[in-house]
TrEMBL record:
Belongs to the RLP family. This is Putative non-specific serine/threonine protein kinase. It comes from Rosa chinensis. Its EC number is 2.7.11.1. It is found in: Cell membrane.
Length: 921
């Protein structure tokens, strides 16, 4: 345009207007052409066609490939990049675009992968990761000969890896991690990939590749190797001909979560001395940390956490002058910490992360580092992360410990025996984003120096001896915090409006907070306020949209009024614990829209009316509605739809009608408590269909339980083992105890007392060999006590009193130890412990002796079992509310997430997705 104007000025008064017009046209078209020219290299027709054909066989629910075909130039389509000179498609990146936002996430691609991709002869980069293709990796991938990078991580491929992949001689990056291959038989194909620089086969089952070090030995260009969670077999360094100098280029090595023993140290030392990163966490490494790292002068990051390593940081670490990160979390380190810190002296100016925490995911070792923290820690001037939590460290923490730590961002010293001597007026040299001083005595007043930490995102001061109310400024500070744990202090006062904060996780449980529930941050994910004195209605939960809320525990407060009706917005709510409050009214039917809720605890309130349908809440695993005034029949949908139910407690309500047969479909129910209701009719004959109670082959740590609890299920699963019980006591049951009940051979506790049961006891009652507690008292049961009772070796609690039983009490180690009152009120019952003899006793002396001999085989301490049972009975919510009530677990869990950073979280999510896919098959 400037040229045109210039020209017209030059041409004076536009005499040659025609000429000018023409020129204009020429110039304009030239400009136009050149602009077309620069971006013009339209993609090749055949490649465009091939891509469209590829698209056709893909199932694309979210229309991820909308741009494919809508624009002519395929080089502009999503995920495509072309060579800007030749126009050939060089890159095809259809990696699933993950998003933190579960709600708006796109669906992964599915369907067939069409061989038309072979048309893309220049393809350098192919990434189909995190989709859901299923089936084998297409063989034709082995013919995409120009490929340099092939990424197929977590794409749900199965079968085995086509050996033709070994033809991709240009490949320098291969990522097959997280697929469902059958255990691979050999890795011969791998050895042809001589250009390979980066290999990731994490989470692929390599348990059969006994000679895996050999298989890798030809990959001489390898710089990065990731074989984590592969069930890599252990190997003996001596019997395996170690491949010396096989790959001197290796710099990054991750072999975490395998079964490797300490031999791996020597393989590593042989394979390269150029390592920058080594990750061996979660193996079977034992003994002291060996001196193999001494020549790895470039080593910057070493993770040996979650093993059984002993001692401390060895002297040889004095060579490691580039060390930036050292993670020894969760081992059996027990040395005096002073020596360990001394051996890091060369890294004084480089060390950024030092993690010596002994716990992992809530599991605390009995081993601890001891001694007092040397002041020389204060000289590690590059230190950004200092994690010493959960040890037995003692001594006084003073300002000297932080003297030069101006870069410190994360400080975790919780759960030691430190005494804290930091002046309230201290002006720390650092600005932390994480501070964990739980179980350190930082109170009684909230320390003023913490108020200088304006970048805080994570603040954990649980059980820190803080009394009184928090300074107002405090809440200003917290407005930028993501995770706040001030539980188990004596903080009182009212909670201010928190809707303008960034809080994602708040734990203020076990304090003295009062007033009404405030409104919370829209980012909130976990809200823990149990065991305070918060009163009034729940309605403020509805005041803000909180779409990410997953965990709510406001149990043991003084909440009153009815449940609000805003549950539609909590699409991700998994745990709702409002137990032990004063809530009233009916349960709004909208609660039944909580599709992913897995724990619902409303026990100990004054709710009434009939239950709304929860038939769509199919992930429910724990339902406790006990101690309310609910009425109506026990709904049939419980058994039809809630197939993941592990614990169902409806005790102490006003439920009536019969026990629906559908309850027998609850295949993994561990604890069924219908006691103290108005239930009538007979006991169902199908209880033996409850496979977890009847069948030993059904694991306690069943898939569903694992799915529900992810990180915390570890603790829960183990305790669940001892919790298999049925309690239908104090109802109006009639009829006989069905024979089929004796097939519940995993049952540990059975209480049918205070009903109107009649008839005889099934002869083979003793088949329920694991019974530790049996109460059939106050019924009308008649006949004799079957002799099979004498094989109930684990019985610690028994009550048969007040029935119509008669005949001899069978003789066993257990049955005679119970107080006679447990047999009283049965008109015809005789023999010890009730009476010394039955009429006509002498004749059977021999039989008794035989029985005694037999019983001695199974003699086990009675006291032990009594304590187990007592634990079982009183421990209901202690055990099963692991997440809800026992804050240390919860605490450990969340902290674990914080500290372990993203990958563990991602892994958990992916793992869940994998399981779900597997279930759908
Ligand atoms: C073409 O691609 C090369 C290499 O990818 C790049 O360096 C160059 O800047 C690109 N040229 C244009 C005009 O985009
Ligand atoms: C990935 O998703 C985010 C948010 O969901 C979106 O902003 C971004 O454009 C997507 N990326 C691609 C390549 O489509
Ligand atoms: C591939 O696409 C994903 C998702 O859109 C994106 O996150 C990733 O950065 C891309 N990779 C490359 C190398 O462009
Ligand atoms: C591809 O691999 C197969 C066996 O894996 C081999 O027989 C064939 O010669 C290879 N082709 C090329 C071009 O390397
Ligand atoms: C459960 O979901 C189905 C299908 O979405 C729906 O038709 C039904 O009404 C829902 N039931 C309840 C009680 O919300
Ligand atoms: C039990 O049954 C008897 C006789 O059938 C009846 O008289 C009694 O009231 C019943 N007791 C209860 C608690 O239902
Ligand atoms: C049996 O129980 C009764 C009542 O509970 C109690 O008084 C008595 O001491 C007990 N006897 C023995 C031997 O424990």
């Amino acid at each position: 345009m400037i040229m045109i104007m210039l020209f017209s000025m030059i041409s004076g008064r536009c005499i040659h207007s025609v000429l000018v017009g023409l020129l204009c046209l020429v110039i304009a078209s030239a400009i136009c052409c050149s602009s077309v020219g620069s971006s013009s290299i339209l993609c090749m027709e055949n490649e465009r066609h091939a891509l469209l054909q590829f698209k056709q066989s893909i199932v694309d629910e979210s229309n991820v490939l909308a741009s494919w075909g809508s624009k002519k130039d395929c080089c502009t389509w999503r995920g495509i990049a072309c060579n800007n000179q030749t126009g050939h498609v060089m890159t095809l990146n259809l990696s699933y675009n993950s998003s933190d936002d579960y709600i708006s996430a796109e669906a992964p691609l599915r369907g067939e992968i069409d061989p038309s991709l072979l048309e893309l002869r220049n393809l350098n980069y192919l990434d189909l990761s995190f989709n859901d293709f299923g089936g084998m990796i297409p063989k034709f991938f082995g013919s995409l000969s120009q490929l340099k990078e092939l990424k197929l991580a977590y794409a749900n491929f199965d079968g085995s890896v086509p050996p033709k992949i070994g033809n991709l001689s240009n490949l320098h990056t291969l990522d097959l991690s997280g697929n469902y291959f059958i255990p691979l038989e050999n890795l011969e194909w791998l050895s042809h990939l001589s250009s390979l620089r980066s290999l990731n086969m994490s989470e692929v089952d390599l348990s059969k590749i006994v000679n895996w070090p050999q298989s890798l030995s030809k990959l001489t260009s390898l710089m990065e190797l990731q074989l984590s969670d592969c069930s890599l077999p252990d190997f003996n360094i001596r019997s395996n001909s170690v491949v010396k100098n096989s790959s001197t280029s290796l710099q990054v090595l991750d072999l975490f979560y395998n079964n490797l023993n300490s031999s791996i140290f020597y393989w590593i030392a042989n394979v390269s001395s150029n390592f920058i990163h080594i990750g061996l966490q979660g193996n079977q490494l034992q003994g002291p940390i060996p001196d193999v790292f001494k020549s790895m002068l470039s080593l910057a990051s070493l993770d040996l956490s979650i093993n059984q390593l002993e001692g401390g940081i060895p002297k040889s670490f004095q060579n490691l002058c580039s060390l930036e990160s050292l993670t020894l979390r969760s081992n059996q380190l027990s040395e005096n910490i002073e020596n360990s810190i001394k051996n890091l002296s060369c890294a004084e100016n480089t060390l950024e992360t030092l993690d010596l925490i002994t716990c992992f995911g809530g599991r605390c070792q009995i081993w601890h580092l001891n001694g007092s923290l040397p002041e020389s820690v204060g000289q590690l001037s590059s230190l950004e992360v200092l994690s010493l939590a959960q040890n037995s460290l003692s001594g006084v923490i003073t300002e000297a410990h932080f003297l030069k730590l101006s870069r410190l961002q994360s400080l975790a010293i919780s759960n030691n025996h430190f005494s804290i001597n930091l002046s309230s007026d201290w002006n720390p040299p650092f600005q932390l984003y994480l501070l964990d001083m739980s179980s350190c005595k930082v109170g009684p007043a909230f320390p003023k120096w913490i108020l200088t930490q304006t970048n805080l995102a994570f603040l954990y001061l649980s059980n820190a001896g803080i009394f009184g109310s928090l300074p107002d400024k405090c809440w200003d500070l917290f407005s930028g915090i993501f995770r706040l744990d001030l539980s188990m202090n004596q903080i009182h006062g009212k909670l201010p409006n928190l809707s303008t904060t960034s809080l994602v996780f708040v734990n203020l449980s076990s304090n003295l907070l009062s007033g009404t529930l405030p409104s919370f941050s829209p980012m909130l994910n976990g809200l823990y306020l149990s065991n305070n004195m918060i009163s009034g209605p729940l309605s403020s939960l509805c005041a803000t949209q909180i779409p990410h809320l997953e965990y709510v525990d406001i149990s043991e407060n003084l909440l009153s009024g009815e449940l609000p009706n805003c549950w539609m917005q909590f699409k991700l709510l998994r745990v709702l614990n409002l137990g032990m409050n004063k809530l009233t009214g009916k349960i709004p039917s909208m609660l039944g829209n909580l599709k992913v809720i897995s724990i619902l605890n409303l026990h100990g309130n004054k709710f009434s009316g009939e239950l709304p349908s929860f038939e769509n809440c199919t992930e429910l695993a724990v339902v406790d509605l006990g101690d309310n005034n609910f009425s109506g029949k026990i709904p049939t949908w419980i058994g039809q739809s809630l197939i993941n139910l592990v614990i169902l407690r409806l005790r102490a309500n006003e439920f009536n009608g019969i026990i629906p047969l559908t309850l027998c479909r609850l295949a993994i129910i561990h604890f069924l408590d219908l006691s103290h209701n108005n239930i009538s009719g007979g006991l169902p004959h199908c209880l033996n269909n409850i496979s977890v109670l009847a069948d030993d082959s059904v694991g306690v740590n069943g898939l569903s339980v694992e799915l529900v609890w992810k990180g915390i299920e570890i603790e829960f699963g183990e305790n669940l083992e001892g919790m298999r019980g049925i309690d239908i006591s104090s109802n109006y049951l009639v009829g006989e105890i069905p024979e089929s009940i004796t097939r519940l051979t995993n049952l540990i506790s059975l209480n049918l007392s205070r009903n109107n049961l009649t008839g005889k006891l099934p002869e083979n009652f003793g088949n329920m060999q694991k019974l530790e507690s049996l109460d059939l008292s106050r019924n009308q049961i008649s006949g004799h006590i079957p002799t099979s009772f004498s094989s109930l070796h684990f019985l610690g609690v028994l009550d048969l009193s007040n029935n119509q039983l008669s005949g001899r009490i069978p003789v066993s180690t257990q049955l005679q130890t119970f107080n006679a009152t447990k047999y009283m009120g049965n008109p015809g019952l005789c023999g010890p412990p009730l009476s010394p003899n039955c009429p006509g006793d002498e004749a059977t002396e021999d039989d008794h002796n035989k029985e005694r001999e037999h019983d001695n085989d199974g003699l086990i301490s009675l006291g032990f079992f009594i304590s187990t049972v007592l634990g079982f009975i009183t421990g209901f919510w202690i055990v099963c509310g692991s997440l809800l009530l026992k804050s240390s677990w919860r605490y450990a869990y969340f902290k674990f997430l914080d500290n372990a950073k993203d990958w563990i979280y991602v892994r958990a999510v992916v793992y869940k997705a994998k399981l779900q896919r597997r279930l759908q098959r």
